[in-house]
TrEMBL record:
Keywords: Cell membrane, Glycosyltransferase, Lipopolysaccharide biosynthesis, Membrane, Transferase, Transmembrane, Transmembrane helix. It comes from the Bacteria. GO terms for biological process: lipopolysaccharide biosynthetic process. InterPro entries: Glyco_trans_2-like, Glycosyltransferase_2, Nucleotide-diphossugar_trans. Pfam families: Glycos_transf_2. One of its GO terms (molecular function) is undecaprenyl-phosphate 4-deoxy-4-formamido-L-arabinose transferase activity. GO terms for cellular component: plasma membrane. The lineage of its organism: Bacteria, Pseudomonadati, Pseudomonadota, Gammaproteobacteria, Lysobacterales. Residues 5-166 form the Glycosyltransferase 2-like domain. This is Dolichol-phosphate mannosyltransferase. The keyword S-adenosyl-L-methionine does not apply.
Length: 239
């Protein structure tokens, strides 16, 4: 069984698929047992066909597809549920995350305490447009103030987390943007690790600042409510 599952959700990313898979393999092959789980969220281009063609060349690659388009959070969760590794690394399918940072996150985990269940990437030098950087900065400031999750960049796609801890989190659309706060709600600790960030080389972004803001307001209120209503206790078996 693989020690690590790399989960990559994609929608209309046919030109980014092979370069990103090649980089994942270069970063991990020979270092540890791993698998790559791509989740196609009903792409309208031939992303799925490209993935199927690569399976013969990359034995670590697994491909699953959604029957109906469901969004990034559901794609991530579908990939984690299908994964066989006890730890999950996630990457955005657009190639802006650098797979070479996965070993850095693994090293941080190996040197960290057991109660840390999420190592979140922190894009210190973002390679996005000025409007996206400003929007992200404002959103992170508001989120941090409301949720107090001590995370400078919750929207970074590259993360490393414990599979079992993730599947125990409350599930809702857009939950992938709030993983540090949700992990902390469950009693675990999280750590942010500086990572590389790259400009998109091909394809187009699936989001804009307006739709992010509109859904973000409702999501923030919902996550804040979940945190307020959380209740945890230790248990022991009586033998």
């Amino acid at each position: 069984m693989p020690q690590l599952s790399v989960v990559v959700p994609v929608f209309n990313e046919r030109d980014n698929v092979k370069p990103l898979i090649d980089e994942i393999v270069a970063a991990l092959r020979g270092r540890q047992d791993f698998e790559i789980v791509y989740v196609d969220d009903c792409s309208k281009d031939d992303t799925l066909a490209v993935l199927q063609g690569l399976k013969a060349q990359v034995p670590e690659l697994r491909v699953i597809k959604h029957i109906s388009q469901s969004g990034q959070s559901t794609a991530v969760r579908s990939g984690v549920k299908a994964a066989r590794g006890t730890w999950i690394a996630t990457l955005d399918g657009d190639g802006q995350n650098d797979p070479a940072d996965i070993p850095k996150l693994i090293a941080a985990r190996d040197g960290g305490p057991a109660e840390v269940k999420l190592y979140a990437g922190w894009r210190v030098h973002r390679q996005d447009t000025g409007s996206k950087r400003w929007a992200s900065r404002i959103a992170n400031a508001i989120r941090s103030r409301m949720l107090r999750d001590s995370t400078p960049d919750t929207g970074c796609g590259i993360k490393l987390f414990d599979r079992e801890a993730f599947l125990d989190l409350p599930y809702f659309n857009h939950m992938h943007r709030y993983l540090p706060a949700l992990m902390q709600r469950s009693g675990w600790k999280t750590v942010s690790v500086p990572v590389n960030h790259r400009a998109r080389s091909t394809g187009v972004s699936k989001y804009n600042n307006l739709n992010r803001a509109l859904v973000g307001i409702a999501d923030l209120r919902g996550v804040a409510w979940l945190i307020r209503r959380a209740k945890r206790t230790a248990v022991e078996e009586i033998g």
